[in-house]
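Box S1 | Example of a co-folding query
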Amino acid sequence: MKMLTLRRPDDWHLHLRDGDVLQAVIGDTSRHFARAIIMPNLVPPVVTTSDARAYRERILAALPAGDRFEPLMTLYLTENTDPDDVEEGKRSGLISAVKLYPAGATTNSHGGVRDFNKAMPVLERMAKIGLPLCVHGEVTTPEVDIFDREAVFIETVLDPLRQRLPELKVTMEHVTTADGIDYIKSSKGNLAGSITTHHLIINRNAILVGGIRPHYYCLPVAKRENHRLALRAAATSGDARFFLGTDSAPHVDPLKECGCGCAGIYTSVNTMSCLAHVFEDDNALDRLEAFTSLNGPAWYDLKPNEEKITLEKRDEPVTFPAKRDSGAGPITVFDPMFPLHWQVID
Ligand code: DOR
Ligand code: ZN
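Box S1 (continued) | Returned holo structure for zinc ion
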C-alpha cells in the first residue's frame, strides 16, 4: 500500500453556484481543499464588492459544520465596473481577483466584456494595485472554429492586452491547448495558467465517440490528444507557472442532458484521486504537491497551507457516488473512465 502526504490543496478556479446547488456541492470541496477562487458567474453575476461580500456569507453559511474553508472572492468584470469599488474590494481583503469573461463565451457570460477599451480604466487600476485578472481565454467570434478559440484569443486579445499593460498580472484559466502552454512558458512574467483535472484526462473523443456524452462537455471544450499531452507535461513538470484550477462546474442533469446542454463538468468529488492517478502514471507523484498546493499560493501571494492531507493507494478500486443529489436535481460526478485507486483518507 502506498501513502502520499501533501500540504492541503487549494482550488484556483471553482464554481459553487448558489442556493440548493451550493448547499449540495460545497462539502465536496471543503472536505479536501482549504481555499478556492470562487467564480462570479451567478445569475445575476457578482459584479460589485458588496455582491461578493453577500455571496461569501452565503458560502460560509452553507459549509458543513466543522469544515474550515476560505472562499477567495472574485468580481465579474463588466464594461461598467467601477475601478474604485474594485480597489476597495482588494484593500479590504475581500477580493482576490477579477474575472474576465468575453461576452457570450460560456455559461452566464452575456454581461461580460465586448469592448476592451471600456474595461481599460479598471484593468489599469488593477495593474497599479497588483490585483490579478483571471481570464476565460476564448474569442466568441462566430467565424472562429470552437476548437481554435483559445489560440485565436491568445493572438488577438491576450497578447495585445499584455503588451498594452505589462504590469497586469494575468491568470490564463483552464488552459486547454499546447498553444496556451507554449504562450505561458514563453512569457517573461506576470502570466500563469491553471489547468483542470478533466482536461488532463479527456480529449475531445470523450464527448463525441459512440454518441454525444454531455457530461464530458465543458468550455473551453476538450481538444485533440496532442493538446492533452501538452497539459499533462506542464502540470506534472513542477513548473511554478502551472497550478490546479478544477473548474468544477455543477449543473443538474436535466440542464446537461437535453437539446442544448450546459457546459461544465463536476469534478470536486474525486479530483484528488484523479490527480494522484494522473501524476503516478506520469512518474510525477513527487510533483503533485507543487501543482495542487504550492504553485497557486505563490502566484496569488499567499502562504501555502500548513495543514496536510494524506492519500492512500488501495489494491481494490475506490468507488465514488455517480451523482450528487441537490434540492434542484441530481448532478453527475465526473467519471474518468478508468478505475481510481487513490483515496484521500485524512
Ligand atoms: O464548462 C464550463 N462551465 N466552462 C465555463 O467557462 C463556465 C462553467 C459554468 O459556469 O458552468
Ligand atoms: Zn469556470
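The mean pLDDT is 97. Residues 99 and 325 are 29 Å apart (CA to CA).
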